[in-house]
Amino acid sequence: MIKWVLFITLLLSTKGLYSQEKSKGFVSKDSLYNENIKKSRLYGVYIPRDIDDAMSKLMELTTEEARKPFLKVSEDTIAKKLYFGLGRWIEYNWNFDEGSRFSHYLRQKGLNYTEDMTRTMLILFHRHVLGKPLESDILIKKMVEERKKKIAEELKKKEVISEETKTKTKND
User: Fold this and answer.
1) What share of the chain is helix, strand, coil (3-state, %, to 5)?
2) Judging by beta carbons within 10 Å of its beta carbon (0-12, 13-18, 19+), is residue 144 exposed, middle or buried?
3) Who's near 93: CB < 8 A, 6+ residues apart?
4) Predicted model pTM
C-alpha cells in the first residue's frame, strides 16, 4: 500500500514538473558572458538594469543642448544618424557584444542582435526625450519581426551549390 501511495505521489509531482512552461530566454554557455550579466559595472561603466534605468542614465549623460536635434527629426532618422555616434557609445560601453546585465535583459525580451539592440535604444531614447510613450515591447516585437524578414530574404537569395540524393539500401 505504501509503495502505491509513493508511486502515485511521484507520478503526480513529475507531471507537474513537465507541464510547467519552458523558459524561452537566452542562455549562454560563454563564461565571460555569464560573469558579465551579474555585474552592475563593467570596466568602470555603470550598466543599466532595464530600459527605464537606461533612459535615466542617458538623460544624465547628455545635455539639454545635445538633445535639441531630437525635437526636429523622426525616430528612424535619429536611429540612422546617431548609430555611429551615441549608438556606438551605448553598444561599446554597455557591452552589448560580450554581454552585460542590460544586453542580457534585451536578449530576454527577444533582441539577439547587437545592431537591433542599439537601434532600439536610440529610438526609445528619442521617444523619451520627446515625452512620448516608449511602448518598448511593441518596438522590440517590430525589431524581431524585421530581423526575421531580413534573414528569410537572405536565405532566399542563397544559391544551392549542389544537391545529392541518397539511395536507400536494405540496411537503411
Assistant:
1) 65, 0, 35
2) middle
3) 45
4) 0.73
The pLDDT tens digits for 59-81 are: 999 999 999 988 999 999 999 99
The answer, yes or no, to whether residue 19 has pLDDT greater than 50, is no
107 and 78 Cβ atoms separated by less than 8 Å: no
How many other C-beta atoms can be found within 10 angstroms of the C-beta atom of residue 25? 10
- Residue 23, amino acid: S
Cell of 20: 510547467
C-alpha distance from residue 109 to each of 38, 91, 123, 130, 155 (Å): 17, 17, 16, 24, 25
